[in-house]
């Protein structure tokens, strides 16, 4: 969170766009494209983006030259809107950078992923009143794609924050937090169950039963389906006066008898059995099929440590936090979700969680026709795996940035080097190359380290097009393939190297 003494401006992008200076005065940004430009920079890594990316997002449909010209004109107009002494947007070579010290409501939300401070959670929850740039409409396809992606990311961050807030609050404040959850996602069944239980624990049995009826009508209208068995059973339990206190509200969680395991030395994940959210219990085979296919597909990635089905399925129906399950199974990440089949439609929700912090890293909902069940299982598992492998890698890079630089294993050196490469700053490239070279000195047969070293030279080619950097990249990647002919990064570097040398057949091969 930004120190108030260093604050230079306050940027609001959740709901309606607004910009205030350090003194609190409102700054009017007249151009819609400039409001979008500031929002793109605010949500980019390190609050910086290349001119090419910004031009492509905001004027990508107009051709490269015209897009560049439009960006220059837009920046000139932005400078007129800002105070004379403002350096809100700075330029560094080909990069546009948002000035440090700008407080952004969306970043405050994203920064609360691991927060347990009740006062801070309450304050940031006030930002969750609207979706990203709700008052802004720009019909350029690249920007619309970016907006959809960022809205989904921020929505899930808000849901995670409000889930955490609801866990910590009591009485009417807990009910208010849960209602806010339902405003974000009216069809989220777990939120409806939580509100039912909240009302019941507050002594409002009638409101609890009414909430069930509200959800049932919503679900029928949207999917022509009935609530899941878990929700039906909760309603029956409430009606019979048998509601028990929520875990985490003074009730100790039951402990699993298995001893905690040590974490492996590579990204590790357990796929928990997906919940059968259908009203019919005989659909459990389908949710189990999704989980088993995910385990099988994830196991094909050699750099992932995947827990076997027998171990992860032992947690079916058992309570326990993500942290506890992660410690028991010895994994960094958990993947779980639900499957609902209604008539000829199928809805699968998948969620990736960092076990230690219990932070939701990625979540997605998939709607498919269910006419070819086994084809759908294969398609969904492949889609989910393709999405989460990259997300796992990004999270490992984020964790690597927090590690000290001394006494690191070769694997950690590679992670730190890749974290530097992700900064997209030329001055970080030699530092990354040094880390990869040190990793190779520790393990001369580490193909991944050599592939990353080759990648630094490929990156150098974009600054120095003499060809020597490109040849260096190809030579190192080819040498790494002698160690491991299946290392994907080596093939990528060789493929791009041949592409830029116009050796198209070899480029396609790699």
Average pLDDT, all residues? 80
Shape category: globular
Q: What is the number of strand segments?
A: 12
Number of helices: 20
Q: Main sheet?
A: 6 strands, mixed
Radius of gyration: 25 Å
Q: Segments where pLDDT lies below 50 for 5+ residues?
A: 1-5, 245-259, 401-407
User: What share of the residues does DSSP label as strand, in percent?
Assistant: 5-15%
Helix percentage range: 40-55%
Structural class: alpha/beta
Q: Kindly, what is the distance between the CA atoms of the first and last residues, rounded to a whole number of angstroms?
A: 44 Å
Fill in the keyword field for this structure:
single chain, 510 residues, alpha/beta, 6-stranded mixed sheet, 20 helices, 12 strands, globular, disordered N terminus
How would you sum up this structure, described in words?
The protein is α/β, with parallel strands linked by helices. It has helices spanning 32-43, 51-59, 64-81, 105-110, 118-125, 141-168, 171-184, 189-201, 205-223, 229-239, 284-298, 309-312, 322-329, 373-401, 410-421, 429-442, 447-461, 468-483, 488-500, 504-509, and strands at residues 9-12, 18-21, 48-50, 89-92, 95-98, 102-104, 268-271, 275-276, 305-306, 333-342, 345-354, 359-369. The strands form three sheets. Strands 7, 8, 9, 10, 11 and 12 form a six-stranded mixed beta sheet that branches. The chain has a three-stranded mixed beta sheet with strand order 2-1-6. Strands 3-5-4 form a three-stranded antiparallel beta sheet. Helix 2 packs across helix 6, helix 11 crosses helix 14 (373-401) and helix 15 (410-421) runs antiparallel to helix 16. The longest helix has 29 residues, at 373-401. The radius of gyration is 25 Å and the shape is globular.
């Amino acid at each position: 969170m930004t120190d108030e003494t260093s604050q230079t401006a306050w940027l609001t992008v959740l709901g309606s766009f607004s910009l205030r200076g350090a003194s609190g005065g409102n700054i009017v940004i007249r151009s819609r494209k400039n409001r979008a430009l500031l929002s793109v920079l605010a949500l980019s890594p390190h609050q910086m983006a290349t001119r090419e990316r910004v031009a492509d997002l905001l004027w990508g449909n107009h051709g490269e030259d015209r897009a560049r010209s439009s960006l220059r004109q837009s920046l000139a107009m932005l400078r007129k809107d800002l105070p004379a002494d403002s350096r809100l947007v700075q330029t560094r070579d080909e990069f546009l950078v948002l000035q440090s010290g700008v407080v952004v409501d969306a970043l405050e939300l994203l920064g609360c992923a691991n927060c347990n401070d009740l006062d801070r959670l309450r304050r940031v929850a006030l930002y969750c009143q609207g979706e990203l740039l709700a008052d802004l409409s720009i019909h350029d396809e690249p920007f619309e794609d970016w907006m959809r992606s960022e809205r989904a990311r921020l929505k899930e961050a808000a849901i995670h924050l409000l889930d955490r807030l609801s866990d910590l609050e009591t009485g009417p404040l807990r009910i208010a937090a849960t209602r806010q959850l339902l405003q974000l996602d009216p069809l989220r069944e777990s939120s409806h169950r939580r509100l039912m239980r909240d009302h019941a624990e507050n002594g409002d049995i009638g409101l609890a039963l009414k909430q069930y009826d509200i959800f049932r009508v919503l679900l029928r209208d949207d999917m022509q389906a009935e609530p899941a068995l878990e929700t039906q059973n909760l309603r029956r339990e409430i009606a019979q006066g048998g509601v028990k206190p929520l875990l985490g509200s003074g009730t100790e969680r039951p402990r699993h008898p298995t001893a905690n395991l040590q974490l492996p030395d590579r990204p590790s994940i357990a796929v928990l059995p997906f919940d059968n959210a259908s009203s019919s219990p005989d659909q459990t085979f389908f949710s189990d099929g999704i989980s088993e296919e995910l385990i099988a597909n994830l196991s094909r990635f050699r750099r992932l440590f995947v827990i076997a089905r027998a171990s992860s399925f032992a947690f079916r129906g058992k309570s326990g936090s993500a942290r506890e399950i992660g410690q028991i199974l010895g994994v960094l990440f958990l993947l779980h979700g639900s499957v609902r089949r209604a008539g000829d439609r199928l809805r699968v929700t998948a969620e990736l969680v960092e076990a230690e912090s219990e932070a939701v890293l990625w979540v997605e909902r998939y709607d498919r026709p269910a006419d070819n069940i086994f084809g759908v299982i294969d398609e969904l598992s492949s889609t989910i795996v393709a999405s989460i492998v990259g997300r796992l890698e990004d999270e490992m890079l984020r964790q690597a940035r927090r590690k000290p630089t001394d006494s690191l294993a070769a694997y950690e050196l590679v992670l730190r080097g890749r974290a530097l490469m992700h900064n997209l700053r030329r001055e970080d490239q030699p530092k990354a190359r040094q880390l990869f070279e040190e990793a190779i000195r520790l393990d001369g047969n580490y193909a991944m380290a050599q592939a990353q070293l080759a990648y630094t030279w490929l990156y150098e080619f974009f600054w120095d097009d003499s060809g020597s950097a490109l040849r260096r990249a190809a030579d190192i990647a080819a040498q790494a393939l002698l160690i491991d002919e299946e290392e994907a990064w080596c093939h990528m570097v060789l493929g791009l190297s041949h592409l830029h040398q116009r050796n198209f057949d070899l480029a396609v091969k790699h």
